[in-house]
Amino acid sequence: MSNINHTLIADFPVFESFSTQELNLVLNNAKSLRYPIGEIIFEQSAPAHSYFFLLHGHIRVTKITPEGKQIGVRYINPGEFFGITEAIGIDRYPATATAAIDSIILCWPSSNWHPLMKDVPKLADKMLKILGRKLQQTHTRIIELTTQSSEQRIANVLLDLSQNSGRQVGENTEITFPISRQDIAEMTGNTLHTVSRILSNWESRSIVKSGRKRISITNLEALKALAQKNT
Amino acid sequence: MSNINHTLIADFPVFESFSTQELNLVLNNAKSLRYPIGEIIFEQSAPAHSYFFLLHGHIRVTKITPEGKQIGVRYINPGEFFGITEAIGIDRYPATATAAIDSIILCWPSSNWHPLMKDVPKLADKMLKILGRKLQQTHTRIIELTTQSSEQRIANVLLDLSQNSGRQVGENTEITFPISRQDIAEMTGNTLHTVSRILSNWESRSIVKSGRKRISITNLEALKALAQKNT
DNA sequence: CGGTAGGTTGATCGCCTTCAAATCGTGTGG
DNA sequence: CCACACGATTTGAAGGCGATCAACCTACCG
């Protein structure tokens, strides 16, 4: 029996309709860990020893090219599994995961994956759906990269982040973890210079308000309009 | 019992280590169909009624953006499943599939998916791996799009196509189905003009030889060098 | 309070798109 | 069998978007 209480995870959508017994099966063999901001959880190409679930915080996932250029893959929100290499039959992490902010995660040894999927088939189903959605999102990303302008891509990333990792503060929606121009550049395929120029421009038009590693959206409608194709 | 003989599929890598009995389970409920060049197999956003396996030929998969711009996703080779929407829990096709050349496919009703996965768990495992590899390939594509020049991206696509869909003809490797500049442009995020210019340039350097909807690589090493990061 | 990581802003350059027009290949109907 | 039509390709010219190079500024941290 696990030393982690099932109520810790019961409310996340992935586990909806799971019985207490099933939750306990899931938590069996799980360890909880705290990662302070900036700490690396796993590194690209390293042998995959564990898989993870984010309880609290935010994780930044990045990939590095053979030429050494870094690109941002995505941000993990609480309630998401990550590093599930066993699911797709690989034995090394395909990317690097870093705590974007102090975070608490659950982790299981990789060897636990197949037994768990067998014991809780419901979870295996979920995993497939998760993979499927990821694949779709990745395709959307490609479409954006090939058909949209820098400005549109940045607008889209910001909308996505505000939707999935945003917090309402008065009139504004602010992104709940520190994110730099460089980070946005790596996610949108731009240089930080371009990102800075565009954000400055938006700031002058009162669409966003941003500071050092902080971004807050003041005019969501305007941003949505920018993300849409127009001139 | 199916009217399709199991030897038709036995030699494809996906089915390696499958028993005759398992193969017959797979073929149960399968229909084989012939699609002439240019014919649409399924269309993006249409309700997913079937899933498919390519026996012979080549299938082009494309996506269309909300703004109406078309992009090329990939080419299916014989031995691959496609349109497996059930696997990722969606009920509409996420892209359009067209016969790039006269093709022969197997097709099953979507409703057959879950029973089959249950009857042949070995196949479910394979499907996960396939999805995983697809996800990885898609990420590679993103990396290429964000970090490489037009020339490098085109070189990479050509290398990929020659590897997976190439035929050795004397000194040259030619791509075994008709593919236009426009097609390559849609796969690499370029205009057909850029593709044409680059191919013309390569032709003058004796790296490729190409005609109307036909491409043949005459100097593989040179192409590999171009795909690599250089100046 | 100094050092440093993050951010801004200007100037220039080049790749690729866009616009335009000509040419080539292929299949088809008279 | 030839002429024609249309799709595919080539090539030129111009222009722009975003990268690159460069310098400076500013907020936070120890």
TrEMBL record, chains A, B:
Superkingdom of this protein's organism: Bacteria
Keyword Transcription regulation: yes
PROSITE patterns: CNMP_BINDING_3, HTH_CRP_2
Keyword S-adenosyl-L-methionine: no
Domain Cyclic nucleotide-binding span(s) in chain numbering: 14-99
Protein name in UniProt: Crp/Fnr family transcriptional regulator
Alphabetical list of InterPro entries matching this protein: cNMP-bd_dom (IPR000595), cNMP-bd_dom_sf (IPR018490), Env_Response_Regulators (IPR050397), HTH_CRP (IPR012318), RmlC-like_jellyroll (IPR014710), WH-like_DNA-bd_sf (IPR036388), WH_DNA-bd_sf (IPR036390)
Lineage: Bacteria, Pseudomonadati, Pseudomonadota, Alphaproteobacteria, Hyphomicrobiales
Keywords for the protein's UniProt record, in alphabetical order: DNA-binding, Transcription, Transcription regulation
Species for this entry: Hohaiivirga grylli
A Pfam family annotated for this UniProt entry: HTH_Crp_2
Domain HTH crp-type: 148-221
